Amino acid sequence: MNEILQAATLLAPTEGVIEVRALADGVTHSGYFDDYECLARAVEALDADPSVAGIYVTLNAVNPALLARRANRIKMRLSRKDATTADADIIRRRWLPVDIDPVRPSGVSSTDAEHNAALAVAERIAAYLAEQGFPEPLRADSGNGAHLLYRVDLPNNEAATALVKGALATLDALFSNEAVTVDTANHNAARIWKLYGTASRKGDNTPERPHRRAKILNAPEEIGVVPLERLDRLAGLLPREEPSQPKKGSRRIDLAAWLAEHGIAVRSTRPWQGGTLYVLAECPFSSAHKDGAFAIQFANGAIFAGCHHASCGGGTQRWPELRGMHERKRPEKKEEAPPPAPVDDEHRRRAGEILKTGDPLAFLLDTFNKSHVGDRTVAECLVMSLASQSVENTNGLHVAISGNSGKGKSHACTTMLQQVPEEYRLAGTVSDKALYYNGSLQPGTVFLFDDVSLSDDLQEVLKAATANFRVSIEHQTVTTDRKLQICRIPERCVWWLAKVEDAGDDQVANRMLTVWIDDSLEQDERVLRYMKEREVREDGGDGEDPDLVICREIWQILKAVRPHVSIPYARSVQFSATTNRRNPGILFDLIKASALIHRFQREAYEGGIRANLDDFTAAARVYAAINGETGGQETKTTKNEAAALATVATMGWEQFTIRMLQEALGLSYHQTYRILHGYTSRGTAYSGLLEKCPAVSFFDTMVTEDGEGYAMRRREHLFSFDLVVYRRWAHGGGVWLDGDRDGGPDNPGRPPDRSVRTEGCDIAAGLPQDSSTGCNNPAARNDVELADLCTRRERRLPLGTEVQQNVPTVPGTGSVVSASAGACETHNAGTGPGIPSLRGGSLNPAPFSRPSAGIAGCTTLKRDARRGPMPQEPLSGVLDHREFLRVKVELGRCDVCRTGKAVYRSREAQTNLCEGCYARLVREGNAREGVR
User: What percent of the chain is predicted at pLDDT more than 90?
Assistant: First the structure.
């Protein structure tokens, strides 16, 4: 009785009049109630009668005058003169009823399997409607199927009836199948509904098909009303009218045959608006979900396809897109537009000229920089990726670009993609299955995934395609007529991922060139200046750059032949770390890609070409960059993570908290927490420094603080940092040629008298890069005379200590060739306070080293450092945080803020700083160096 009373109260929340109607052996019992306790007692007695098959109530608000027909009583066996509630007797609609019923013979109860199938479909419908903005429904078990009741507030008129009818028709089309249907007959206003708490008796009660009691499964504490616009959108999701007919003369497509021909599985088929509706087994538009896709062929032959999920357009027409995924593109003739002009012979001639006598790599990069400011290393990675497609003996180079949102990742990729011939491009959102079914893909296609999350299935496709770069990847499926169909992704396709976060799976990341977009303040200023200059132009600047056509011709020429590339000096290539066995292969593929770009300028042999030292220099430059200031190839760290590690090393912390690191980095607490611990987003786990870097560990501790007359204890999460382990872990990006091996006349690709080293380009140290090599280490410039000008930037060396070779730097990932009698780094790099760069001019000797930074300094700098204390409000760039050492002796108050306790001291600047002022100094230094 309590369950019946609760049901009546929920179904009629305004305490209006309800009709109770019972069906039993061909007769009807009925009564009207406004006293719900009386209703519960009457229904309880009626439910005890085994001849009663089911007890129902009106859902919508009944005219109160009808109470006088049978006031708070049940009349048994109504006669023909006894009226029941009609549609005209409903004064307002208050429910959208969704009845999910299993398919079974009439007059019998459902089996447990049929019953469970209906409940499962009800959950799918509720999840879908929640995605569409519907509030939580009242969920119930009808005894044989499932109910969903959504609260509405509609008048009882034709428009409301059409609205409810359309909503139920949409749900029926999208979710009904051969086993379960959504009842579309429940659109009339006077519809009666199973009263929860009563038995449902259809046929005999057998073990296979038992009688069950209807019950409420879940009722929200507050049932929200569905907004009218949500109902309108649901009702209008599927087209109610036939789309325009196909053009005269065009081939009429048989949709059923087309779906079978292209291996698109169909879950169910039903008549629809005079045509046929096909519910697809899997969504071809997105890998984020499987259900929801459909296609309709109307009586006039027109076709409509879409997906009911909002992320897939929410029912918008997507048939042209679906067709384009599976049919080879054919250009449509347009009467108003002239046919495309043939390729200008002048463009082809110019492209050949650049390839034979010019610098094709520089031309491609310069063309890129006409539309995209900076990010030269990103562009080089993309160019090398394209070139790797045309090398016979390569495993392919794929690129993952990460960085903060709004810093130009997508623009960099789309700008470079414009240089690729159109038939080799695929950009946008695509599902894993669509890649296999797309018949227009050619070998050597570029896949650009712009800031999308890779599903697990798509990551598996990427791993398979990259691991088997030189062969096509097959996917076997079964058509609707149970015939085997084999679909393929062609060979030599490269993948470009433009992501705010990491690529996701470590196996995916290990196959990619991991490069960071430049998000420094200086880059922001350069982009702004470029935008201003572009807006000043009066010629519009919207036409295509003629050099883009030449770039496409360059790639057409390079794709025509696929040579084998030999690296004669490969045995002389040395690596400072080979923990990740894929990275040496990446360097060799970079060398081959460089040789391919300069194919017409390289020594040829039968079937191939030989890479020379220029190719090693170009490849080593890119490799050093993506292991330093523009990437985390070896360590797999993001730019923020690399900055955090460099900051901890610079601060000299052996232990630190999230709050300490947050203040030093200038980030939010949440961002800093994620840098250390990692996080999970959309089902993908992103690891943090605790997992990536062996130098960082975490432990719980109890801290005691003395108060005024009492001691307070609290838990503290502390992170420990091992500087020695960090240096050993972070130096693995160095590559060089061993001058003692494989030289001489037997190795024409490598002269014996020159040692090319890129080991340890100290990129993160903030020195300006050399324009020719992208490295600030003179030893990386293929000039042995300059090798003695670069010194070790090892930190915390005593004054006068000779710098040793092969000691890794703290902030970077390489190690620098040292020279005990080199040049003053500060003068030659132009990093000293107010001291101009002397690069290319006379060089000062470097008889001493900076105590904290390990930088060799000339006597002029030493003399400048002894002139006394710095100003009390230091300007940006005046104090160098690398000059400071953390000390344990009492220093008194901070010389800058005059309030904090000084814990850092610079002997040269004669300045003492507190923790906060030193952290600010580190932030300013990082900002100048572009590490954020």
Answer: 26
